[in-house]
Amino acid sequence: MEKPIFSTFEVSQICQVALSTVIGWINDGELPAFRTPGGHRRVKQEDLVAFLKKHNMPAQAQFGEGSDKKKVAIVDDDKLTVKLLSMAIKKLSDKIEISVARNGFEAGELVITNKPDLVILDVFLPGIDGFEVCKNIKSNELTKSAKIIAITAYPKQDVKNKILACGVDDYLEKPLDMKVFLDKVSKALKIDSK
């Protein structure tokens, strides 16, 4: 669909809900909308897509969003770890696109630019550490829907508590159990593991 603006009726058709439900979303501030000079409500495509993503609604496939490739960002300064994780994740599906950042600064730029569905985040990074990267991802409206799996080679309870407090969705200790890791990746991406 190329249309950049939708009527409330069109939104109800896309979402397969009653028109009154869409109007309720707008009135509650859940779905941004504006009024035409004639008083009709209209929804911009980018606002609708953001709403669909936020609520994990499958209708986003109509906009070429999220339906094709899943995006995974690996943030780790260890080249061997990045290579092993990339190879393992690619075996899950040929519809996974992987990007890599080696430090916290690169991670911030990568997440804003690529908007990954999942971030595999090493806790201890040069520059900005994984704790700060996680807080930045989860506090930004554009990136907060990304799932984050934190990994660390320092399995102390205080490290685990600190990273969980930052808002990660899951946590794993190195050395990784690859079966557990891939199960968690599959779950985060909502794909069936092979």
Largest sheet: 5 strands, parallel
Average pLDDT across residues?
86
Radius of gyration: 19 Å
Number of domains: 2
Extended strand count: 8
CATH topology of the largest domain: Rossmann fold
Biggest sheet, spatial arrangement of strands = 5-4-6-7-8
Number of helices: 8
CATH superfamily (homologous) name of the largest domain: Response regulator
**Structural class by SSE content:** alpha/beta
Secondary-structure element pattern, one letter each? EHHEEHEHEHEHEHEH
How far from one another are the termini? 32 Å
CATH class of the largest domain: Alpha Beta
Low-confidence stretches: none
The protein's oligomeric status is: single chain
Q: Please identify, by name, the CATH architecture of the largest domain.
A: 3-Layer(aba) Sandwich
Salient structural properties:
8 helices; 194 residues; Rossmann fold; five-stranded parallel sheet; three-stranded antiparallel sheet; Multidrug-efflux Transporter Regulator, Chain: A, Domain 2; alpha/beta; 19% strand; 2 domains
Overview of the molecule:
This protein is α/β, with parallel strands linked by helices and about 190 residues long. The chain folds into two domains: about 5-65, Multidrug-efflux Transporter Regulator, Chain: A, Domain 2 (Orthogonal Bundle); about 70-190, Response regulator (Rossmann fold). The protein is about 45% helix and about 20% strand. It has eight helices and eight strands. The strands form two sheets. A five-stranded parallel β-sheet has the order 5-4-6-7-8, sandwiched between helices. It has a three-stranded antiparallel β-sheet with strand order 1-3-2. The chain starts with a strand and ends in a 5-residue tail after the last helix. The model has no long low-confidence stretch (mean pLDDT about 85).
